[in-house]
Write a structure and sequence with these properties.
Blueprint (H helix, E strand, L loop, with lengths): L7 E3 L8 E4 L7 E4 L2 H18 L8 H15 L5 H17 L4 H14 L4 H18 L9 H9 L5 H20 L26 H14 L4 H9 L4 H6 L5 E2 L4 E4 L10 E4 L2 H7 L14 H11 L2
Antiparallel strand pairs: 1-2, 2-3, 4-5, 5-6
Helix pairs in contact: 4-5, 5-7, 8-9, 8-12, 9-11
Length: 309
C-alpha cells in the first residue's frame, strides 16, 4: 500500500489555522498553519527530505536537520561518520548497562581480593588510601561509565608532586585492571592517561670520605638519626623499609635485620645479614627501643648534611 501524497489541505475546525499538512503516514503528527504560504513552504521542505533521505527524514525540524549536518561535519574532521559516533556511544552505554557496580563498591572488592592474595599491610594501606580519595569524586559512578578524560583531568588536578600523582595513577590502575580482568570493561582506561614526568634522579653515591664525614656529623650533632643512616648505607634496605623498621627487628647479637612480611614490598619476610662494620656502628644503640626513624628525621638529616664538611 502506497503512502498518501504530501499535500496541503484545508482545515475547517480551527478559527485561525486553516491549513493542514498530514504527516501521520510517516510516523509523525499533523501540522497546522495560519497562512497558506507557510504550509506550502513546509510541504516543499518535507518533499525534499523525502526524496533525499526517504521517509526517515519526514517530520524532522529545521533544528534537528541543522544538528545532524553540524554533527556530520564535525565528525568528518576526524575521519568518522554518524554511524561511528552512534556505535561508540551505544557501546559505552551498553557497558554501563552491563555493569552497574559503582567505583566505591569495586574499590572495596579489590581491597578484599588483594588482602586474600596475601599482599602486605603496607601495600593495602597505601592502596586503600588512594582508592578512598578517588572514591570521593567517583564513588557513586558506575565503573564502566568512568572515561579516560575524567581520570586524566582528575590526576592532573591532584595536589602534590609528580611522584605523588604517579602513585595515584598506579593505584587507580589496579582498580580498573581488576575491572578489566572481571570483564566489566574492555580495556583499562588508566593506560591511556598521561604519565606524570618524573625527575631522573640517580641514587646518591657517597665516596668513602664523604660517607665518613656524614656519619661523623650525625654522631656529633644528631645521634638519633645515625642508626637509619648506617642501615641505609651498609644494609641495602629500601627507604620505605627503613621508615617502617623497629629497633626490635635489629638483632645485634645474631647480627641480622628482620624485614617482616607486613613491611616488605614483596610481602615476604626477609633476613638481612649485617656486616661487622654495621654492627659496630649500631652497638651504642643496643638498648634503643621503638621506631628506627626518629621524630623530625627530615629536619635533622638536613642539619647533618649542612654540618658535614
Amino acid at each position: 500500500m502506497r503512502k498518501p501524497k504530501l499535500a496541503v489541505r484545508p482545515y475547517r475546525h480551527h478559527k485561525t489555522h486553516k491549513f493542514l499538512l498530514d504527516l501521520r503516514a510517516y510516523g509523525k503528527g499533523r501540522r497546522f498553519f495560519r497562512h497558506r504560504a507557510d504550509a506550502d513552504a513546509e510541504c516543499r521542505r518535507q518533499r525534499i527530505l523525502l526524496e533525499k533521505h526517504s521517509s526517515e527524514a519526514i517530520g524532522l525540524s529545521q533544528r534537528a536537520m541543522s544538528d545532524f549536518i553540524t554533527a556530520k561535519k564535525t565528525l568528518a574532521e576526524y575521519g568518522e561518520t554518524i554511524n561511528d559516533a552512534v556505535n561508540f556511544r551505544v557501546d559505552h552505554l551498553e557497558r554501563v548497562r552491563r555493569c552497574k557496580i559503582t567505583v566505591a563498591q569495586l574499590a572495596n572488592e579489590v581491597l578484599d581480593a588483594k588482602r586474600k592474595d596475601g599482599m602486605s599491610e603496607a601495600y593495602l594501606n597505601d592502596l586503600a588510601l588512594r582508592l578512598r580519595v578517588f572514591s570521593r569524586d567517583f564513588g557513586s559512578q558506575p565503573i564502566a561509565g568512568v572515561t579516560v578524560e575524567q581520570i586524566d583531568d582528575w590526576l592532573r588536578n591532584l595536589p602534590g608532586s609528580p611522584k605523588s600523582r604517579a602513585n595515584y595513577r598506579a593505584n587507580i590502575g589496579v582498580l580498573f585492571s581488576y575491572a578489566t580482568s572481571r570483564r566489566m570493561l574492555d580495556s583499562n582506561p588508566v593506560l591511556h592517561t598521561a604519565k606524570p614526568k618524573l625527575p631522573d634522579n640517580p641514587p646518591e653515591i657517597f665516596a668513602v670520605d664523604e660517607l665518613r664525614a656524614l656519619l661523623d656529623a650525625a654522631n656529633r650533632d644528631a645521634p638519633d638519626v645515625l642508626p637509619m643512616l648506617v642501615i641505609g648505607a651498609f644494609a641495602g634496605l629500601r627507604e620505605a623499609e627503613i621508615q617502617r623498621l623497629d629497633m626490635s627487628e635489629v638483632d645485634l647479637v645474631r647480627g641480622f635485620i628482620e624485614v617482616k612480611s607486613a613491611k616488605a614490598k614483596s610481602a615476604r619476610r626477609r633476613i638481612v645479614q649485617m656486616q661487622p662494620n654495621l654492627v659496630a656502628w649500631l652497638q651504642p644503640f643496643a638498648g634503643m627501643k621503638g621506631r628506627l626513624v626518629p621524630v623530625g628525621a627530615r629536619r635533622k638529616l638536613e642539619h647533618v648534611r649542612k654540618a658535614a664538611p
